[in-house]
Design a protein that fits this description.
The complex is a heterodimer of chains A (390) and B (441). By secondary structure, chain A is an all-alpha fold. Chain A is 71% helix and 3% strand. Chain A has a domain of 246 residues: ABC transporter involved in vitamin B12 uptake, BtuC, CATH 1.10.3470. In chain A, α4 packs parallel to α8. The longest helix of chain A is centred in the middle third of the chain and has 30 residues. Chain B has 441 residues and is an alpha/beta fold. Chain B has two domains: 139 residues, Response regulator (Rossmann fold), CATH 3.40.50; 232 residues, Rossmann fold (3-Layer(aba) Sandwich). Chain B contains twelve helices and 18 strands. The longest helix of chain B has 21 residues. The relative contact order of chain B is 0.15. Classes of the chains: A mainly alpha (390), B alpha/beta (441). At the A-B interface, α4, α5, α6, α11 and α13 of A face α1, β2, α4 and α5 of B.
């Protein structure tokens, strides 16, 4: 009996302790991150070898080719730009501790707004259509973001659930227009395929008297993908300065740190919340416009491609620093593309897309997991203490 | 905050006004085939330009020069894509094309990913690029415009002819021929059941025996298929009516199973399908084992695995017939036909192994019908064999020239039959003939 009491008093084998602020030097933090990444690569190599008996060297080569190979690099850059754009949109909301899980839906409604203009307003000049599409997308995304914020401000509705549910409404709105416009065909496909109205490329395309496209010399400035990436880089830089050097950015930071402090300092928390969610949704909406006008030229529920959710991880891993987000986005998309290349190259011998998803899962688990060990440490039971307890 | 909101509302109003003033309208596309006559002679001319029902030519070129890229909607775990993968690999093996000369892109969604993967394939050196889903087509078309040196094939598509691009092709088999033959198999069984007195009043609607069909969508592709099947049955048993239940999905096991079960419940004796799962045969087999008189005819693959007692046969495509034609043509430096469509004559369609439930003499009848289809003596859509609103049709358009989903050009009724897959390889027959009823549209 006495012994048992002693046993229960005994400290556990290990326990988790927060490191507190700035306890871990930067080089150690990065050491943990790089270590986790390398471990993930090793685990994946082992996994791949188990599944299809591809040796690690070939595996890494395939991953590299899929992510950065000739002809493959642009896909990674485009994907990373899209992910970055959404993560950047989330940054102000998250910094404010407003959990906007609705980026996916905000991108979708932005896309729908752009597509509606594209579908119904084909008589306007190309520049006007594009501008109108952009404006409407921004408004649609902004409104989609504003709505949960209004409910949060007025009746303290849980924004996590609210924004999450708004995603599903947006998805079904997309489906509604998709089926409306598809008509009795198997798929909708690109909108305005013959006229290219509402396509970003319509801004510089030339047509001959019969309406056929004139072949143009290829340059960066007549490349939709280039503009897609360039505009997103501009947004990223603007957001960085907005958050770091403007009064509004400062207000966001204060509200995020402590609402009471913000109130005490005379900041209207509700006003900041509404304004920030309009901005967050608007940037998502703009992303929807960019995707529709320069990439897909149509709508589908795969428009945001799940990046609305992946961006949450990106924003967190980057501590809401927009430039770090760029790096993390590239990393995650490169992993995705590398894994997809594995599935394509070894699909015929049994490496299915599901196996590629397992690879990405292993990677993300270790990368996100490494952050845990940066913020917490594992304290093992000390011998001396044990003796003392007995 | 007020200032901000008012600014926001002002923006909203400006846009609203702009929208109203813009008098938004849908512009009609122009410049496709304008000026061609609308009658059959014109159609014939048009068909002769594009549609080639070719078989693989003898290879004279260098086989090592071809590199094939395949952008697929699914992977080998899904029946539709598996049939294409098999077709491509069989054709490649037949022509001596190495495995390393084929680059696969599995599970490709119907969005800009098609463009991205197409560019990757071209960077990898592919000179023949295939996309196997209808929804890939618009992206394939853009790629074809940008890369005139590469031949693109949009399987089951319909835009190659109107695109004006010489390096874009569409292909579709005349699967309606095999559906007709599958209908003959079902008709033989039905006749045996009627002669043997196996049917009850519940199986009749007035004078007519009831059969059922589980269809994916009410599009031409499905309508063409079920009409062919119905006419096949009708060629053996004249007093037959068919109910069609749509599922609004190409693949939905539960919906297909439920649709088939309700058709069986209403007294249908034969259930066929144009949807990709084994849902319908599963329901039929369950009903059969519970003592119902009901049999099924499948699609794509033999259903004998899931319905050993009640499956009669399945209508299916032989994609290798097309792929060997396309690859051999490309190797020889030729141009792949803009619209390719072929049936029994070219070995592009077939029915799967006959089930043990089939009536006596079925094989002989099947062989006879196939021979007639090959020789051209028999045409599936013979206008003397069906009516629309009680009348025999004398003309029917098969081209939608203005994008409103209604056919408005190119008559394909001549010489006593509807020329299916004539101006475009994708099916065009979308008439609602007498004797077939839609249950849920």
């Amino acid at each position: 009996m006495a012994e048992q009491t002693v046993k229960t008093k005994k400290a556990p084998l290990f326990h988790i302790v927060g490191r507190g602020r700035g306890q871990l030097p930067a080089y150690l933090a990065w050491g943990i991150r790089v270590g986790a990444f390398l471990l993930a690569l090793l685990l994946n190599a082992a996994f791949v070898y188990l599944v299809v008996q591809v040796d690690p060297l070939t595996f890494y080569q395939t991953m590299l080719k899929g992510a950065f190979g000739e002809g493959y690099l642009w896909a990674t850059v485009k994907g990373a730009a899209k992910l970055l754009c959404i993560a950047v949109a989330l940054a102000p909301a998250f910094k404010m501790r407003f959990w906007n899980i609705g980026a996916e839906g905000q991108v979708l409604v932005g896309g729908i707004a752009a597509a509606i203009i594209m579908f119904y307003c084909t008589n306007l000049p190309p520049v006007v259509i594009i501008l109108l599409m952009a404006v409407c997308s921004i408004i649609a995304g902004g409104l989609w973001g504003l709505l949960p914020a209004v409910f949060k401000a007025k009746m303290d509705a849980n924004e996590t659930l609210f924004t999450l549910m708004m995603n599903y409404i947006a998805m079904n709105l997309v489906n509604y227009f998709y089926y409306l416009w598809r008509g009795p065909k198997t798929a909708l496909g690109k909108i305005n395929q013959t006229t290219h109205r509402g396509w970003l490329s319509s801004l510089w395309e030339e047509r001959d008297a019969n309406g056929f496209l004139v072949q143009q010399e290829e340059s960066l400035f007549t490349n939709s993908d280039f503009w897609f990436v360039a505009i997103i880089i501009v947004i990223t830089v603007l957001m960085f300065f907005y958050l770091k050097y403007t009064k509004q950015g400062y207000e966001i930071a204060v509200v995020g740190e402590s609402r009471n402090t913000a109130r005490y300092a005379g900041i209207s928390v509700n006003k900041v919340m509404l304004r920030t969610m309009i901005i967050s949704g608007a940037v998502c909406g703009l992303c929807g416009f960019l995707v529709v006008s320069s990439q897909s030229n149509t709508i589908s529920t795969s428009m945001a491609g799940g990046y609305g959710f992946t961006a949450i991880i990106v924003a967190w891993l980057s501590k809401f620093n927009t430039f770090t987000m760029a790096g993390v986005s590239v990393l995650i998309v490169a992993l995705e593309k590398g894994a997809a290349q594995m599935a394509n190259q070894y699909g015929s011998i049994g490496f299915s897309p599901a196996a590629a998803d397992v690879m990405i899962g292993i990677m993300l688990l270790l990368i996100v997991g490494s952050e845990f060990f940066i913020h917490y440490k594992v304290a093992f039971r000390k011998k001396t203490k044990e003796v003392a307890a007995v | 905050m007020k200032r901000f909101l008012s600014l926001f509302l002002a923006c909203l109003m400006v846009v609203a006004v702009a929208l109203t003033m813009a008098s938004c309208e849908n512009e009609e596309p122009t410049g496709d085939g304008a000026g061609l006559p609308y009658g059959f002679e014109g159609t014939k001319e048009l068909a002769a330009q594009g549609a080639v029902n070719g078989v693989a030519p003898t290879v004279t070129g260098d086989v090592s020069k071809i590199k094939i890229g395949a952008i697929l909607i699914g992977d080998a775990s899904e029946g539709y894509t598996k049939a294409h993968i098999d077709g491509i690999t069989q054709a490649a093996a037949q022509l001596g094309i190495q495995e390393s000369q084929i680059v696969w892109k599995y599970s490709t969604p119907e969005n800009e990913e098609v463009t991205t993967r197409g560019e990757q394939l071209i960077a990898d050196g592919c000179n023949v690029v295939i996309t196997n889903s209808y929804g890939h087509q618009t992206y394939t078309l853009e790629l074809a415009g940008k890369h005139p040196e590469v031949q693109f094939i949009a399987m089951t598509g319909d835009m190659a002819a109107t695109s004006g691009l010489s390096n874009l092709s569409n292909a579709f088999t005349k699967v309606y021929e095999s559906r007709y033959v599958a209908g003959v198999v079902a008709g033989m069984k039905l006749k045996e059941l009627i002669d043997g007195g196996k049917l009850t009043d519940a199986n009749y609607d007035g004078e007519n025996v009831k059969i059922g069909y589980v269809g994916a969508f009410n599009f031409a592709e499905v309508m063409s298929g079920y009409t062919a099947f119905y006419l096949g049955v009708k060629s053996i048993v004249n007093n037959v009516v068919m109910d069609v239940h749509f599922t609004d999905s190409w693949y939905d096991f539960d919906k297909e199973k439920a649709a088939a079960a309700s058709l069986v419940e209403s007294g249908c004796v034969i259930i066929s399908q144009h949807a990709d799962s084994a849902g319908a045969p599963t329901a039929v087999e369950e009903a059969f084992n519970a003592g119902k008189t009901v049999y099924c005819v499948g699609y794509n693959v033999s259903m004998l695995d899931v319905a050993p007692n009640s499956a009669l046969t399945s209508a299916t495509n032989v994609w290798s017939a097309y792929y060997s034609y396309a690859f051999a043509t490309a190797i020889n430096g030729g141009k792949i036909a803009t619209n390719w469509s072929a049936g029994y004559k070219e070995g592009a369609v077939k029915i799967t192994e006959l089930g043990s439930a089939c009536a006596e003499g079925t094989q002989a009848k099947v062989d006879e019908v196939i021979a007639k289809l090959k020789s051209g003596e028999l045409n599936v859509f013979d206008t003397s064999k069906f009516t629309v609103d009680g009348k025999t049709i004398t003309w029917a358009y098969a081209t939608d020239s203005d994008g409103d989903f209604a056919y408005d050009k190119n008559n394909v009724v001549a010489d006593g039959y509807f020329h299916e897959s004539y101006v475009q390889s994708a099916p065009a027959f979308n008439l609602k003939i007498d004797g077939i009823r839609w249950l849920n549209k």
